[in-house]
């Protein structure tokens, strides 16, 4: 097997020429290897770190394996450590020729990683722990082995990031991708002579008033999260990074291929939508998409196989880009990488020996000291009192309310300890407003976003907009306004559209308010670590249904009137359940 050499361009200043393959370590490698391995196992496999979807705290790696194993969309993460091991194995001949030459600059990433470790341990969340794994590994490699080792292992270290399920990015990226996917599909259908329109994440056949054809009569699809490209995006990004490393030589070409994973994922899902439209037009919606059973969408076999188009289109695009960038060299690059050979050029040199005993001691003692700090950290969850009153008035101005209890399905869906009050208000003008205040349980992540619940009820989200309101008591809050609709066909040839606007916001124990789900999650962890405030969050929801209308005959002024009525209603209702001096500002009380 050809051996891989280190080149002058990969070495820092001060490197000296030496015979290839000879080690000049100031200490046995096995001592450093097993010492660091023991420290890493203590940090990430043995220490009870997080309580993420489990009853008791689990270590970072144990919690990661269990959580990823339960999430089908993220199970590819389990293969990443194996691939990282293979990438390191490909460079084994190069690593044998490099002596351990510690570099004190490794203290910076090591200290950063240990800080993230403590931060996630204190906040009881896994994502800082994932960062801790990355930075601690980088710090130990650089601190004990040196810069040449870090450069040799840099791609393998960077590739390890694909091990961690980035679920927050999944939600934040899915929202803008869904309407864009629908818009691109609608444009391509029109170019092909199929009249189509998109509204938000909905893709529907266009109306034809002259022929009496209503919107959505031929096909009506909603680009949910599974059709937005996001579920396949991270797997495709991983494949593009690995393919670029193995098949391409130029860093610029590798970066372009990696960046193209996003549009290629969207392109694959556009093709998937086009296949679903074609199947609907030829064989009907039940064959192409599936049946809706209550609030559950049953996926058809055709729909499932259309999903393979995502990877087919994306992989074809990736190989086409590789061929465009490298041409006939792509095959040689693959053979060279897999065989472990390096690109031609450059003389073989190694570093002068330098004993890393002091750096190894630092790499061992600092993590052990961090575990000692964690052992002395107060991690008891002292939940504060709620920042809301679970009471809604039965009368508010011209509105008269009627109480509605939590349904059985809501009790099954929501986490234990979650409470709510809900009133349906009606005015003399006929306006109806559903007002709900939901109080979280004693877990930090027990509230769900309306954007998650509404699509499962058949609603299509058109857009979401932050709106600033001044309450009747002078306080100013920002709420999120979501516009939604859903269509029904009560009788053949008649399509009815129901529209609604939904305002919601989150209220912390100290009266803090925010309109965004992930902002309230961030504040939960930030305040628990740095302010010692354990919020028991509440979410207020104001739901305003609009009169049903025939599809394509909606009056936009009806929605404008509903928005103005809802804004005025919120300014009067919010002070009723949001006290100016919330009880959560008092010392926290222990959770039962």
What's the quick description here?
This protein is α+β, with helices and mostly antiparallel strands. 47% of the residues lie in helices and 16% in strands.
Structural class: alpha+beta
Overall mean pLDDT stands at 81
Q: Poorly predicted ranges (pLDDT <50, ≥5 residues)?
A: 1-24, 342-351, 586-592
The major beta sheet can be summarized as: 10 strands, antiparallel
Give the % helix: 40-55%
DSSP helix count? 21
- The first-to-last residue Cα distance is 64 Å
**Count of spatially separate domains:** 3
Shape: flat
Which descriptors apply to this entry?
alpha+beta; 16% strand; 21 helices; three-stranded antiparallel sheet; ten-stranded antiparallel sheet; 592 residues; disordered N terminus
What does this structure look like?
This protein is α+β, with helices and mostly antiparallel strands and 592 residues long. It folds into 3 domains: 8-165 and 350-375, no CATH class; 169-207 and 214-332, no CATH class; 395-585, no CATH class. It has 21 helices and 15 strands. It has helices spanning 29-46, 60-70, 80-90, 92-96, 107-123, 127-145, 147-152, 154-159, 167-191, 230-247, 251-259, 261-283, 285-288, 301-306, 308-326, 329-339, 357-375, 408-413, 450-456, 517-530, 556-577, and strands at residues 196-199, 202-205, 220-222, 290-293, 296-299, 395-396, 399-403, 419-426, 432-439, 460-470, 476-491, 494-507, 513-514, 538-545, 549-550. The strands form 3 sheets. Strands 6, 7, 8, 9, 10, 11, 12, 13, 14 and 15 form a 10-stranded antiparallel sheet that branches. Strand 10 (460-470) and strand 11 (476-491) form a beta hairpin. Helix 1 packs parallel to helix 17, helix 5 (107-123) runs parallel beside helix 17 and helix 10 crosses helix 12 (261-283). The radius of gyration is 29 Å and the shape is flat. The N and C termini lie far apart (64 Å). Residues 1-24, 342-351 and 586-592 have low confidence and may be disordered.
């Amino acid at each position: 097997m050809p051996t891989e050499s280190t080149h002058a361009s990969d070495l820092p200043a001060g490197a000296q020429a030496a015979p290839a393959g000879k080690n000049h370590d100031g200490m046995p490698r096995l001592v450093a290897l097993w010492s660091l391995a023991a420290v890493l196992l203590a940090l990430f496999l043995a220490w009870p770190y997080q309580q993420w979807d489990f009853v008791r705290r689990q270590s970072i790696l144990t919690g990661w394996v269990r959580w990823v194993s339960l999430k089908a969309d993220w199970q590819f993460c389990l293969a990443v450590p194996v691939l990282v091991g293979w990438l390191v194995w490909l460079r084994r001949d190069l690593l044998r020729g490099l002596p351990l030459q510690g570099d004190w600059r490794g203290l910076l990433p090591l200290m950063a990683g240990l800080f993230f470790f403590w931060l996630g341990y204190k906040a009881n969340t896994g994502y800082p722990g994932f960062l801790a794994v990355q930075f601690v590994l980088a710090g130990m490699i650089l601190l004990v082995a040196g810069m040449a080792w870090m450069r040799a292992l840099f791609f393998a270290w960077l590739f390890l990031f694909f091990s961690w399920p980035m679920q927050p990015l999944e939600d934040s990226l899915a929202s803008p991708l869904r309407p864009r996917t629908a818009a691109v599909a609608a444009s391509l259908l029109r170019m092909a002579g199929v009249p189509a329109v998109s509204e938000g994440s909905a893709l529907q056949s266009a109306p034809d008033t002259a022929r009496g054809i209503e919107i959505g009569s031929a096909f009506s699809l909603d680009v949910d999260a599974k059709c937005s490209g996001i579920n396949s995006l991270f797997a495709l990004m991983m494949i593009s990074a690995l393919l670029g490393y193995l098949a391409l030589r130029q860093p610029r070409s590798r970066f372009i291929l990696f960046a193209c994973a996003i549009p290629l994922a969207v392109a694959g899902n556009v093709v998937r939508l086009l296949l679903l439209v074609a199947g609907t037009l030829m064989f009907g919606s039940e064959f192409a998409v599936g049946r809706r059973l209550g609030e559950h969408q049953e996926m058809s076999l055709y729909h499932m196989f259309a999903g393979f188009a995502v990877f087919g289109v994306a992989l074809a695009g990736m190989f086409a880009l590789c061929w465009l960038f490298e041409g006939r060299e792509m095959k040689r690059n693959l053979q060279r990488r897999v065989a472990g050979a390096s690109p031609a050029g450059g003389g073989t040199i190694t570093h002068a020996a330098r004993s890393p005993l002091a750096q190894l001691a630092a790499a061992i003692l600092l993590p052990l000291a961090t575990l000692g700090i964690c052992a002395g950290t107060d991690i008891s969850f002292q939940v504060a009192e709620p920042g809301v009153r679970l009471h809604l008035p039965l009368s508010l101005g011209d509105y008269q309310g009627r109480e509605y209890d939590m349904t059985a399905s809501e009790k099954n869906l929501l986490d234990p300890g979650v409470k709510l009050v809900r009133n349906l208000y009606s005015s003399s003008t006929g306006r109806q407003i559903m007002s709900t205040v939901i109080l979280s349980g004693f877990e930090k992540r027990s509230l769900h976003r309306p954007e998650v619940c509404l699509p499962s009820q058949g609603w299509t989200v058109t857009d979401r907009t932050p709106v600033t309101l001044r309450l009747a008591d002078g306080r100013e809050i920002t709420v999120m306004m979501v516009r939604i609709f859903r269509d029904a066909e009560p009788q053949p040839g008649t399509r009815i559209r129901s529209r609604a606007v939904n305002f919601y916001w989150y209220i912390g124990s100290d009266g803090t308010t925010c309109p965004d789900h992930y902002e309230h999650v961030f504040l939960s962890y930030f305040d628990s670590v740095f302010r010692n405030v354990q919020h028991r969050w509440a979410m207020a929801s104001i739901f305003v249904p609009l009169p049903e209308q025939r599809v394509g005959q909606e009056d936009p002024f009806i929605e404008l009137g509903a928005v103005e009525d809802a804004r005025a209603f919120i300014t009067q209702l919010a002070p009723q359940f949001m006290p100016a001096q919330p009880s959560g500002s008092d010392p926290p009380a222990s959770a039962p």
